[in-house]
Amino acid sequence: MSNICDHNRCKKSARKAAEHLCKELGVRFTTHRRRVFEIIWQSHKAMSAAQIMQQMDNSQPPITYRALDFLKNAGLIHHVTSLNAYVGCLHTQNPNHIGQLLICTSCYNIVELEPKTAIEKLTFEAKQHGFRPNQTHIEMLGTCKDCLKNERNA
Amino acid sequence: MSNICDHNRCKKSARKAAEHLCKELGVRFTTHRRRVFEIIWQSHKAMSAAQIMQQMDNSQPPITYRALDFLKNAGLIHHVTSLNAYVGCLHTQNPNHIGQLLICTSCYNIVELEPKTAIEKLTFEAKQHGFRPNQTHIEMLGTCKDCLKNERNA
DNA sequence: TTTGCAACTGTTACAGTTTAACAATAAAGA
DNA sequence: TCTTTATTGTTAAACTGTAACAGTTGCAAA
């Protein structure tokens, strides 16, 4: 999927948000955590834990999984449940936001839609059922514009 | 979550749909497949593959995983990705429908919302991005009415 | 009825993913 | 400095899912 965003800027702003958030929560943005963060933020592509570990110079699994947990709980990354993978979160300003992801299963790039797109109706329905939402996953798998174009040319 | 549905009727109609669908596709609703189907349809609760296997008298994993794959591809059950679990699908009439699930993480009961609730906006946005959807997961985790009531009484 | 094909099962072994547990270390405040 | 808490290092194991291949069954055409 085309980099609609200027990715360097994207990454920088996420890093800033991460540092700010850690300071606020009184927790440390340690080497491992920063490392995993940077690896995930190389792109907007979904990465599996295994792929991330490959870039963590032979560190043991718990190192990576702990960092992933930390980043996820801090709202700095999303866990893409339908792929069992991770991707940077673009809305670090709003820790309560709900990720709505368009996931290309060809190039694994992910576009995160703005909050509220589909949530409102869902939240309304939940209320009707007396249901208290806690965590929501909205994931649409498919093929992105660029990959569709490549398909046609192939 | 309270059984809003008359579950016996629910189960019966699902079984009928399953048999009909298998006949239509020219595939067999074999013992294993039927077994897994019945286990999942004991309730509207999410069940993990491991839980299902426990009820399959010591049969080897591939037996269960194959049946799960079969039922999923036939649209007879949903894979709940955020729990890595399975639940019966209520809309077996429409094989293209998209599951929108309210999942109680306390009792694991699942309510499946009617199609179209949140999909339309999502689909619209996808189109804006030139994205071709293929498979969508909408899963809201939280606490259901009954479990909330129990919380208050506890 | 026999034959042949495709669907399905049985079984073993393995690969991939995640966590438990606990000891060791580092940072931050009293 | 001392104490407390957060974080890391390490091992081993549990959990989850699949590859591969031989054997069996059901069905349809000859």
Any overview of this molecule?
The structure is a homodimer of 154-residue chains. Chain A has a three-stranded mixed beta sheet with strand order 4-3-5. The first copy, chain A, has a two-stranded antiparallel ribbon with strand order 1-2. In chain A, helix 2 (31-40) crosses helix 4 (61-73). Chain A has one domain (7-153): Winged helix-like DNA-binding domain superfamily/Winged helix DNA-binding domain (Arc Repressor Mutant, subunit A, Orthogonal Bundle). By secondary structure, chain A is of the alpha+beta class. The two termini of chain A are 17 Å apart. In chain A, 44% of the residues lie in helices and 18% in strands. At the A-B interface, strand 3, helix 5 and strand 5 of A face strand 3, helix 5 and strand 5 of B. The structure holds a DNA duplex (30 and 30 nucleotides).
Number of strands of chain A: 5
Largest interface: A-B, 33 and 33 residues
Task: Give the helices and strands of chain A as they follow along the chain.
Answer: HHHHEEEEHEH
Cα radius of gyration of chain A in angstroms? 16 Å
Supply the helix-strand structural class of chain A: alpha+beta
**Are there runs of chain A of 5+ residues with pLDDT below 50, and where?**
none
CATH topology of chain A: Arc Repressor Mutant, subunit A
Major beta sheet summary of chain A: 3 strands, mixed
Oligomer: homodimer
- C-alpha end-to-end distance of chain A: 17 Å
The domain tally of chain A reads 1
- In one word, what is the shape of chain A? globular
Mean pLDDT of chain A: 91
| Spatial strand sequence of the major β-sheet of chain A | 4-3-5
CATH class category label of chain A: Mainly Alpha
Continuous helix count of chain A: 6
In helices, the fraction of residues of chain A equals 40-55%
* CATH architecture verdict of chain A: Orthogonal Bundle
How much β-strand is present in the residues of chain A? 15-25%
CATH superfamily of chain A: Winged helix-like DNA-binding domain superfamily/Winged helix DNA-binding domain
